[in-house]
Amino acid sequence: MKRFYLLGLFTFLLPVILIAAEAKTDAALSNFMRVSKPEGKRLPISYDTAIVKFADEKNDVQIDLIGAIHIGDKEYYAELNEIFKKYDAVLYELVAEENAKPTGRNESQNMLSAFQLVMGKVLALDFQLAHIDYHAKNMVHADMNPTEFAQRMSDRGDFAQMMSRAMAISSRGGNADAQSEEKMLGRIIGGSLFVSLALALKRVLAEEMMNQIDDAIWLIGGDGSAIITDRNAAALKVLSRELQNGKKKIALFYGAAHLPEFVKSLEQDFHMKCTGIDWIIAWDLTKDRSARK
Q1: What pLDDT is stored for residue 12 in this prediction?
Q2: What is the DSSP string of 89-151?
Q3: Cα 2 vs. chain centroid, distance in angstroms?
Q4: How many other C-beta atoms can be found within 10 angstroms of the C-beta atom of residue 37?
Q5: Alpha-carbon torsion angle 229, 232, 233, 237, nearest 10
Q6: Are 199 and 39 in contact (CB under 8 A)?
Q7: How many CA atoms lie within 13 A of 113 on its CB side?
Q8: Mean pLDDT for the chain overall
Q9: What is the DSSP code (8-state) at residue 258?
Q10: Of 2, 47, 14, which is closest to residue 176 (Cα–Cα)?
């Protein structure tokens, strides 16, 4: 199970449970991603990401946190592009020089992106950088540059911390983990008798990601890291600038792993109130896309 866990972690959380009807924001990652499954049914139908809405009614300001996973259905990214048109500014993540605009042609120039591309092909999913329209006028870069990021990673000792935590996670399961891996492999093989291997793998991976999501956020340093905390601080600095420039409706479009700390910052530092949560289907787990061209 831990091998699948680490695979999912680095694919969805480094650059990815139902919530009560009232808008309460217990800032846990599991509140911003979910696997949807009809009541009484065994198979999941979708893997979803959240749009968490915040408002400052006194100043007529709306800030939405739009969680992302970095490989998903092409329709997922098309829907996001339409949603983005509603905002004065969409602040996006990308460790790159200031005002960098992804083109979709350079997505494989680093190891993580190349790995995501490979996983996208295996799972019959598409890559975020190839489909999000970063050249729209309201898209605003809101992240660290590579030099700053590398320095903060070094200062915090993030890499050593992640390796240590990964070893701790891998060593604590023992025989129970081996049995879980065998069961998971059986679910994949059994599922592939009725649908494609890609769809069977997606269904299992989506549920395993949710089962292990607490370990995931702990591993990448959710209690303070360059990957989450320092990059969030960079984004919030841009958010403050955009608010000072008179923008009233702003989206923060970041990987779902960043949302718990964003929630705390909006509530505690920006004195904003959560007004609701919407969901978008990132993976449709009912359609077999493996035969697409």
Answers
A1: 46
A2: EEEE--SSSTT----SSSTTSSHHHHHHHHHHHHHT-EEHHHHS-TTSTTEEE-S--HHHHHH
A3: 19
A4: 14
A5: 180
A6: no
A7: 14
A8: 79
A9: G
A10: 2
Helix, coil or strand: residue 245: coil
Residue 279's DSSP bridge partners are: 50
Spatial neighbors of 54 by CB under 8 A, at least 6 apart, are 62, 63, 64, 65, 266, 267, 270, 272, 273, 274, 275
Residue type, 177: D
Residues 274, 23 contacting (CB under 8 angstroms): yes
Mean pLDDT, residues 207-232 taken together: 76
d(CA 199, CA 183) in angstroms, rounded, equals: 17
Helix or strand or coil: residue 288? coil
Straight-line distance from the first to the last Cα atom of the chain, in angstroms, rounded to the nearest whole number: 32
pTM: 0.79
Mapped onto helix, strand or coil, the DSSP state of residue 56 is: strand
Strands 71-72, 126-127: pairing is antiparallel
Structure tokens at 98: 């200031």
